[in-house]
Amino acid sequence: MRYTDLTKKELQREYTKLMRRYSDFVRCPPELDMAAEDALLGASENRRAARHFGTVLDKELSDTGAAQPAPAADAVAALATMPGCAHRTVELCRKAGVRFDAVDHCTVLARVIPADARAEQLTRAAGVFAISARLAALESLGGVLLRS
User: pLDDT tens across 84-100, in order?
Assistant: First the structure.
């Protein structure tokens, strides 16, 4: 279900559904900073955690067109959002207790996975990341539809 193929009513229904999930994240935030440098995390642990994070993102974002993995040498995970959605995605994530970096208008980075992050925290952080990217995309598309 690519968001660009949905009708205005379908976009609104999807947005409402995602806002319910997002509200749950805001009520009980995971409080992870994935934007700061953390030299304590070993490379093998970082790769394993990054794979787990990526698996959750793939599941949440598959076929929506809201975001997709992007290459980034200085990050454990990077997403290319729909154009113009990166900063809104980071803003939504921050409100839900997870910090990421927006490096331009369509790239969001998770620079590090904290050493003390547990699997359930990473799953929750990836969920926040994915839901935020999806909400930002729907807001962007909704604005385009309203102008049409």
Answer: 999 999 999 999 999 98
Question: For the purposes of burial, counting CB atoms within 10 Å of the CB of 54, is it exposed (0-12), middle (13-18) or buried (19 or more)?
Answer: middle
Span 127-139, average pLDDT: 93
Q: Crossing angle, helix 86-95 and helix 119-147, to 10 degrees?
A: 130
Long-range contacts from 16-22, C-beta under 8 angstroms, 24+ separation: 18/131, 18/134, 18/135, 18/138, 19/135, 21/127, 21/131, 22/92, 22/96, 22/131, 22/132, 22/135
Amino acid, single-letter form, for residue 131: I
**What are the structure tokens assigned to 128, written together?**
């926040």
CB 22 within 8 A of CB 132: yes
Mean pLDDT of all residues belonging to the chain? 83
3-state secondary structure of 25: helix
Cα-to-chain-centroid distance, residue 136: 10
- Report how far residue 99's alpha carbon sits from residue 9's, in angstroms, rounded to the nearest whole number: 32
Residue bearing tokens 């003390």 = 116
* pTM score: 0.85
